[in-house]
Amino acid sequence: MTKQFTDQLNRTITLREWPPKRIISLVPSQTELLHELGLQAEVVGITKFCVHPETWFRGKTRIGGTKTVNFEKIKALQPDLIIGNKEENEKNQIELLAGQYPVWMSDVGNLDQALDIISRVGELTDRPDKAQTLCNTIKTRFAAYHPPSTVYRPPSTAYIIWRKPFMAAGGDTFINSMLNQAGFENVFADKNRYPEITPDELSRADPEFILLSSEPYPFREKHLEQFREICPRAQVVLVDGEMFSWYGSRLLHAPGYFHQLRQSLRLA
Predict the structure, then answer these.
(1) For an engineered disulfide with 85, which of 27, 190, 216, 244 has Cβ 3.0 to 4.6 Å away?
(2) Strand 3-6 versus strand 209-213 pairing type
């Protein structure tokens, strides 16, 4: 059965065989979503960063990284659908793949768009009911989470994703959306994407909290003191980057994590 679908970049793709039987995922959070939708047999390829679920990481063919795909491995898998993401994958690689295979692209900047991808991927893979149930559960859990900062002033916060050079999450990112959902105000919301910031810029921003993400740079306890020296007033905390940057089924757990985080910071 041939069927057409429109992705989040408003591109139309044609699946010559639907529902798809050989799917490759180029994004970790979308791989986890495909698992949640029950596509064990259909997903044949993932990236080396698709660590969830562990059984897939150990058992599925890895086709390289999100930005360094192995075209020969992909060719050997003969996919009838590839699922990628505008931010996480390289444009030139996606264009090359799209010349040979149906490539469906996501573009996620906030919670509504994350829910949209879940719904669309459910339709794309013939799992609409499971996708709708997942969306409803995520909506319910976020609706039940009401941090005090939705009423009072949210604490000023810098979310750091990289070291040497320092890089922060800007205002047009999914991370910024999740910071807002968690009840924090991003001090770098006026910047785009993931700007490099100097220690002086961070000091002048004078955030109340500095959140050091576990990914893509794996911040550890040993890195806390450097940021405390730059911003003595700030509370510096290690956070689970997956909870702030992974969309898809990971969103089931984000509200609970945000609540626990705020409790640990004495904000809840």
Answers:
(1) 27
(2) unpaired
Q: Average pLDDT, whole number, for the chain?
A: 96
Euclidean distance between CA atoms 116 and 188, whole angstroms: 26
> Is it the case that residue 150 has pLDDT exceeding 90?
no
pLDDT at 268 over 90: no
- Residue 143 Cα distances to 148, 183, 203, 252, angstroms: 13, 13, 35, 12
Output the domain CATH number for residue 35: 3.40.50.1980
Whether pLDDT at 152 is above 90: no
Number of independent structural domains in the chain: 2
Range of the domain at 167: 148-247+254-264
Torsions phi, psi of 80, nearest 5?
Answer: -105, 0
Across 217-241, b (16+ Cβ under 10 Å) vs e yields bebeeebeeebeebbeebbbbebbb
| Phi, psi angles (nearest 5°) of residue 82 | -120, 135
